[in-house]
Amino acid sequence: MKIAILGPVTKDYIKVDEETKIQIGSPAYYMGRALKALDVEVTVYITYNKKDENWIVKNFQGVKIRHIPDKNTLEVHSEFSSNNPDKRISKIGVFAAGFIEPTSKLISELEKFDWVLFGPLLHSNMPYELVLRLKHKKLVYGNFGMFTAYENGKWVWKYREKVIKILPYLKYLFLDNNEAFYVSGQKTLQKTADFFKKKGLKNLIITEGSKGSHVFAGDKYYKIPAFVPKKLVDPTGAGDTYEAAFIRSTEFFDEPEKQGKFAAMVATMSLEKRGAFDSCVKEVYKRLEI
Question: What pLDDT was estimated at residue 44?
Fold first, then answer.
């Protein structure tokens, strides 16, 4: 399995209760590291300022990197409470455009991968043309990035039509429940799933943090329970880790329910330490008692 991931990389200031640490972040980071740990040949196409390269390469720990130059490296400040890890307060410290130009060279390279995962953090990161020009049949998008702007110090959701436009091209869409409700304009899971399906989406996965996740695979629905972590250390990147693990599991299992449970366990294991998931398939199976 060969997977490409596209998006910005971030310098994250993570505060959990009263403790703050600086670490690397972004969907591209959490998905890239998780997939490498799960024995995938993964390449990340990431935007950042060249001056941060040594730090970024060190943190990606052997993941193949294709640098896309940017004026800055995006800096994000986030706060969590161990009593409610599903709630996050977030703001940008240093802005970066993170634009990924859909050059012929990039398109040609991406066509060689089995899967292409998109991980934008702002609507300006990933142009529609990038999706349109790819002939690839296994495109995956997750998180709030494509419909989000940053205005007056706040993340603002305002471009739902950008996600709706790419739905027919996607193999999977991963969103949390609030993101999915916003994009669909609906207020229930089933109506949300129906909306996305009518717009051409093949498979939808909605996550709800500690409440579990919902897999709408074609006409079938599966409720996936969340696993309780041994200790909650850092919830950052759990949704991205879930997405990466789900895609990885499609090579292990044919049943969407088993794929969801594998992804849920990997996400839970990622909560138990700071930084990216770094265990292995064998340990995930052990926790699942497979």
Answer: 98
